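Postdoc handover notes: sequence design on the structure in folder B. Input tokens:
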């Protein structure tokens, strides 16, 4: 059974969601269709991915009720810099064929994110968003936000996988009652942790795939995990993670693989 977590405003979020970064519109449509058939109900996209229309088509044609889906999208950096939050939000709604977003995130702490946050708070108060949050924020970015917020971010979505556990940041978020979500949970495009000998031997031990071991580790760490795939078999198996438990000792062994190795940009010096 899919596990859910309650966010700081009371909204419930399914703990495993399908990520669609680097998927074309058609690939995203197909991946989301397979995912919904497999039992996922949480989809994580972003305006910059350019595939919101594929997500929107798949969800609209899925036969599922809108309230049974959890859809996240993100406000892009250029829209933040150009003070286009409300316009960008309307564009995302149209592409996603919906009249509300379950979770809307500031994608990166781009110049102007404080003003964007105020606009997002308004959209939230108008009932157009279930919860608002951020992505790729270090504690010092969050502290800037705390100075001006009236609504606390519900979520911080960050890079995390066995080679960059980012545990200190996750612990900080937890102390602040901000739910951590993890992107590139399998290590991103190259998915190097899937070939790690420790992960592979745990996969043998639990009779699971390396990806299932990592996704389960995230579930037990208490984070929201967003594995990306455009392949049906992988989409299905990445969701088959609710019927086993990793021991505390093995959990620690996975966490010990950390080498602070990013596959994406550091939020302190991104250049896009
Ligand atoms: P693909 O979409 O071709 O399946 P992330 O860490 O961002 O979630 O990315 C994981 C990467 O690993 C993606 O490029 C994805 O590629 C691939 N992948 C996803 N699930 C699996 C799996 N179960 N086994 C092997 N590779 C996977």
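Designed sequence:
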């Amino acid at each position: 059974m899919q596990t859910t977590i309650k966010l700081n405003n009371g909204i419930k979020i399914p703990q495993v969601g399908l990520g669609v970064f680097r998927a074309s519109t058609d690939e995203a449509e197909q991946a989301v269709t397979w995912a919904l058939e497999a039992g996922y109900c949480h989809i994580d996209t972003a305006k910059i991915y350019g595939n919101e229309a594929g997500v929107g088509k798949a969800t609209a044609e899925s036969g599922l009720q809108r309230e049974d889906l959890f859809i996240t999208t993100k406000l892009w950096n250029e829209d933040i810099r150009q003070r286009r939050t409300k316009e960008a939000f309307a564009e995302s709604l149209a592409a996603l064929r919906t009249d509300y977003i379950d979770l809307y995130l500031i994608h990166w702490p781009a110049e102007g994110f404080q003003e964007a946050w105020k606009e997002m708070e308004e959209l939230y108060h108008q009932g157009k968003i279930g919860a608002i949050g951020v992505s790729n924020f270090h504690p010092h970015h969050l502290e800037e936000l705390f100075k001006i917020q009236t609504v606390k971010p519900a979520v911080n979505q960050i890079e995390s996988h066995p080679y960059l556990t980012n545990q200190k940041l996750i612990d900080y978020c937890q102390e602040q009652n901000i739910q951590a979500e993890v992107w590139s949970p399998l290590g991103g495009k190259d998915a190097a942790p899937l070939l790690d000998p420790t992960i592979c031997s745990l996969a043998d031990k639990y009779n699971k795939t390396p990806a299932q071991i990592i996704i389960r580790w995230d579930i037990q760490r208490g984070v929201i995990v967003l594995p990306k795939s455009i392949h049906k078999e992988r989409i299905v198996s990445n969701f088959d993670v609710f019927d086993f438990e990793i021991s505390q000792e093995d959990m620690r062994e996975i966490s010990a693989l950390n080498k602070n190795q990013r596959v994406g940009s550091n939020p302190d010096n991104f250049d896009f």
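Context for whoever picks this up: The beta strands are 4-6, 12-14, 18-19, 42-44, 70-75, 101-106, 129-135, 155-159, 179-183, 224-225. Don't rerun without checking with the PI first.
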